[in-house]
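Private note to self, pasted from the team thread so I don't lose it. Backbone tokens:
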């Protein structure tokens, strides 16, 4: 068989007819090209086959486009999941760092308050009640890590103030008793001296 042309008569682009097909369309502009010496039935059959081939190509192209769109959607979902995961991880690490820092600050403040309690107990033993009372009134937990810890130190402050008052009262009572004891001893001594004088 002979081709009418090896170039598209419509756009002039080079064409390559598929094997076994006497009529086809230009791959560049879609122009319908028919080979020579064909009967009408052969032309119609070739046209029908060409249309079927073109439809199949279009289906393949549509499938490829749909598959590419699906892959893009899946990649987008994957990237979105990764983005959310990274965001959650960063948020978790940030909150862990914040809570860890606050917990560390709380531990440091409790250690400082405990040192103050130890100093108050020493002041009580040394009967420095004014210094002990000042330190006890400054015994406040301010780290804010836990309400339970804050209540604990409030209770500790109140208990220490009671202990200071009790120790101060006992010390004053002991001092007064000591004065009375000395006064009583002096009175007994004077009576004995007076009796000794009278006997003379």
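Design output:
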């Amino acid at each position: 068989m002979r081709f009418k042309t090896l170039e598209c008569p419509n756009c002039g682009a080079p064409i390559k007819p598929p094997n076994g097909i006497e009529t086809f369309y230009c791959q560049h502009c879609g122009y319908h090209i028919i080979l020579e010496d064909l009967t009408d039935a052969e032309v119609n059959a070739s046209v029908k086959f060409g249309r079927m081939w073109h439809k199949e190509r279009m289906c393949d192209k549509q499938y490829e486009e749909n598959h590419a769109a699906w892959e893009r959607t899946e990649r987008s979902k994957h990237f979105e999941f990764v983005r959310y995961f990274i965001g959650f991880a960063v948020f978790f690490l940030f909150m862990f760092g914040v809570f860890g820092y606050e917990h560390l600050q709380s531990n440091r403040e409790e250690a400082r308050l405990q040192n103050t309690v130890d100093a108050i107990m020493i002041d009580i033993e040394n009967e420095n009640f004014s210094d002990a009372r000042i330190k006890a009134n400054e015994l406040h937990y301010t780290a804010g890590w836990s309400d339970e810890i804050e209540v604990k130190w409030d209770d500790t402050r109140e208990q220490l103030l009671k202990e200071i008052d009790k120790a101060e009262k006992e010390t004053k009572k002991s001092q007064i008793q000591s004065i009375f004891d000395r006064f009583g001893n002096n009175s007994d001594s004077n009576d004995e001296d007076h009796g000794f004088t009278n006997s003379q």
